[in-house]
Specification:
By secondary structure, this protein is mostly beta strands. It contains one helix and eight strands, in the order αββββββββ. A hairpin with a 2-residue loop joins β1 (about 20-30) and β2 (about 30-45).
Length: about 110
């Protein structure tokens, strides 16, 4: 099955979303806290396809369905990118799925 973009985005828009994003998850367990950091690197290949390379699994293609929202072909999760200023690189990436949202903050500049 071939998954196509609902919309076409030019490379300048897509480049706003490239970079490394981190989510910090803290789990408390009997007066101890363990912090886990989940990292995803968003990149664009030579054909203009957007990929996210997770630190704990293989890279996955993400497909735009609006200017700042993407889906994973074959998976229920979606990604939404948010910027503090119009036209600026995204400050955060939000993974949405199963009624939950996991916020990833952009690392570095």
């Amino acid at each position: 099955m071939l998954f196509r973009s609902a919309i076409e985005l030019d490379r300048a828009i897509l480049e706003r979303y490239t970079g490394v994003y981190e989510a910090r998850m803290v789990e408390g367990q009997e007066n101890q806290a363990a912090t886990d950091v989940w990292t995803g690197r968003v990149e664009i290949d030579d054909q203009g396809q957007v990929w996210i390379d997770w630190d704990n699994q293989s890279a996955k293609k993400i497909v735009p369905y609006s200017e700042n929202e993407f889906y994973f072909p074959g998976f229920i999760q979606r990604l939404r990118f948010e910027s503090s200023e119009d036209g600026a690189p995204a400050d955060r990436m939000i993974m949405i799925g199963d009624g939950t949202e996991l916020i990833f903050e952009r690392r570095g500049s």
